[in-house]
Design a protein that fits this description.
The protein has 606 residues and is an alpha/beta fold. It has 21 helices and 22 strands. Strands 2-13-8-3-4-5-14-22 form an eight-stranded mixed beta sheet, sandwiched between helices. A five-stranded mixed beta sheet has the order 18-17-21-19-20. The protein has a two-stranded antiparallel sheet with strand order 6-7. Helix 19 links the parallel strand 19 and strand 20. The longest helix has 22 residues. It is elongated. The chain starts with 19 loop residues before the first strand and ends in a 15-residue tail after the last strand.
């Protein structure tokens, strides 16, 4: 009786929710693995064009060296020789974790995987979107990946998920922020029954909806009522909710999830209580048999789905507890993939299981793109992959959830600033060297604070010289307009790098402040030389932040609101200075290397 819920559409109280899967189409785990084709990707492309015979006669390809990330036999041998080095830090969510492994196989599986991948319509993505994240001077750039588990009953999914409902809902949604250093990542679980604004979304008939100011979050994925769901609408909704641009979206359904767990020979999980058949299907007249036992165990296929979809019989029966178990499961799966290593025997079934049930955005619609993205995640250590739940509270009018907007904003601002939840700077920038003892004296306070004067001082060999590696966030702390942009101009003229321009929460600063994080005091003093009279002090954020005050506005001819001075090209919607996150968010975070039995439920009862 395992897996029979029979719950209705996700409209609030008892909607199903979890990772999903369409795994039949992925090949059978353990199936024979074809030998690598000579020439790697080039040979695979010829095979895709119906030229296998000619390629076989031609023998090994004589083209130049294989493309970066390619492989064929060379990559397979390299992976076999050094598995520990290659997989030391492979992490990510189910599908994304698999993609990291693909990078070592190159041409061996390119052709097969390329035919598996499905993508959604680029025209369904909203035109009014948050700005793209900007790369720093070293080319480092954060990436935001939206991970969606669909509960579609289409194809053979109803055999795994139970119920007769048509259409699809998002059982679980995680926004994975990969920091610019590509050594840290955090996944934000968004409650499926949270009340949010849903923007206008494209329907299958090409028309656009009017949107809604308040609806269940997972109603976005249901827009249009198809078995494939509407991932573009969910992406649009997340961007509206967070103010963060989603770079890529991945959707996996019941069968794919089930097949992936089998391909890795099961995933280790843990439960604080025995789970009975009735806990999975409340319509049963009796408690029934135990389907998931208390304590540590390994699950795959249907039991794995039961684990990540389970709500009743444990904790308070809410989606909050279920999200905690999903986070624990993803962490355990990432650990399992890391331990298995890169080897062709397990790689091909795993890759097939992932891609055959995967729907992606147009930016990931080929094996090349997926493998390139997977490679970008290879240096994230398990301990530095964190999971948190979007700040929430129960509603008093129904069984749904409201987002705690003030705390959520702090979380989004933290991600926009590329700070980890525990306050580390993860922009990828390296701190500049401390000034030598013989460095020339700072620019005198009487020096005119203008771009020309500052640039001249830098050229003359002041401490401002060679400062391009020092990155500064600039915010206006005065009601005079355009001051942050003008300050950024002056910093750029002095060869600093202004990484953000925006508005501080407080507009009553009298004196310009230069705030610095750990190890940045010497650099902050260099920055302060651009702003005569500025106060240098420790700050709560990593890196260096300048908040210009009334003194700067007066020196630049702006003494009242509405004064001129806006810099052309200044970012109009730069993130606010991130406020410290509530301790409850940080304390409740899960690292991917945490004990599998910790933090797997919420509330009491059952």
């Amino acid at each position: 009786m395992s897996g029979q819920w029979g719950e209705g559409p996700a409209r609030g109280d008892d909607a199903p929710g979890a990772l999903t899967a369409d795994g039949a189409a992925g090949g059978t785990p353990g199936a024979p693995v074809p030998g690598p084709r000579a020439g790697g990707r080039a040979e695979a492309r010829r095979a895709a064009q119906g030229k296998q015979g000619q390629a076989a006669k031609a023998g090994p390809a004589k083209a130049g060296p294989p493309p970066a990330g390619g492989g064929g036999r060379a990559a397979a041998r390299a992976a076999a020789r050094k598995p520990k080095r290659d997989v030391k830090k492979i992490v990510a969510w189910s599908a994304a974790g698999v993609l990291v492994l693909l990078a070592g196989a190159g041409g061996l599986i390119y052709y097969q995987l390329n035919g598996n991948i499905k993508s959604f319509d680029a025209d369904a993505i909203a035109k009014d979107r948050p700005p793209e994240a900007q790369a720093d001077a070293d080319g480092n750039k954060p990436v935001n990946l939206l991970l969606i588990g669909s509960d579609s009953r289409g194809k053979n999914n109803s055999d795994l998920g139970g119920g007769e409902d048509g259409g699809a809902r998002s059982d679980t949604t995680i926004l994975l922020h990969v920091y610019a250093d590509h050594k840290h990542a955090v996944g934000i679980s968004i409650p499926r029954n949270a009340m949010v604004a849903i923007p206008s979304c494209k329907l299958p008939n090409g028309k656009w909806t009017k949107g809604s100011n308040s609806d269940l979050f997972n109603a976005a994925f249901s827009t249009g009522g198809t078995d494939e769901g509407n991932p573009a609408c969910t992406q649009n909704t997340v961007e509206k909710l967070t103010g963060i641009r989603v770079d890529h979206t991945m959707v996996v359904d019941f069968q794919g999830f089930s097949a992936m767990t089998k391909a890795v020979d099961g995933v280790d999980v843990c439960l604080p209580e025995d789970i009975y058949e009735k806990d999975l299907n409340e319509k049963l007249p009796a408690k029934g048999a135990v389907v998931l036992k208390k304590g540590p165990q390994k699950v795959e296929g249907q039991p794995a789905l039961d684990y990540v979809r389970l709500r009743h019989g444990i904790g308070d029966g809410s989606d909050i507890g279920r999200m905690k178990r999903q986070q624990a499961f993803i962490s355990s799966l990432a650990s399992k993939i890391k331990k298995q290593g890169l080897n062709p025997t397990t790689l091909l079934p795993l890759a097939n299981a992932a891609t055959s049930s995967l729907t992606v955005d147009p930016g990931l619609d080929s094996a090349d793109k997926l493998m390139s993205f997977g490679l970008s995640l290879r240096n994230i250590d398990l301990h530095d992959l964190k999971f948190v739940t979007l700040p929430w509270r129960y509603r008093t009018v129904d069984a749904n959830i409201d987002i705690v907007q003030a705390d959520a904003k702090k979380l989004w601002d933290t991600l926009k600033a590329d700070q980890t939840i525990d306050g580390q700077n993860a922009t990828g920038e390296q701190p500049a060297e401390a000034p030598s003892p013989t460095a020339p004296p700072a620019v005198a306070a009487t020096t005119a604070s203008t771009p020309a004067a500052v640039a001249h001082a830098a050229a003359a060999g002041s401490p401002l010289a060679d400062t391009k590696s020092i990155k500064v966030s600039v915010y206006t702390g005065t009601s005079a307009t355009g001051m942050a942009g003008k300050a950024a101009e002056q910093l750029k003229a002095a060869k600093f790098t202004a990484t953000a321009v925006g508005r501080a929460d407080n507009l009553k600063y009298t004196t310009t402040m230069v705030q610095y994080g750990s190890g940045q005091k010497a650099n902050a003093e260099k920055v302060a030389a651009v702003f005569p009279g500025a106060v240098v002090e420790p700050g709560t954020s990593a890196g260096i932040t300048v908040i210009v005050g009334k003194d700067f506005a007066a020196a630049n001819g702006a003494t009242a609101p509405g004064a001129s001075g806006s810099a052309s090209g200044a970012a109009p919607s730069a993130p606010a200075v991130p406020q410290p996150l509530p301790s409850s968010i940080v304390a409740d975070a899960r690292s991917a290397d945490d004990n599998i039995c910790d933090n797997t439920t919420y509330g009491s009862g059952g």
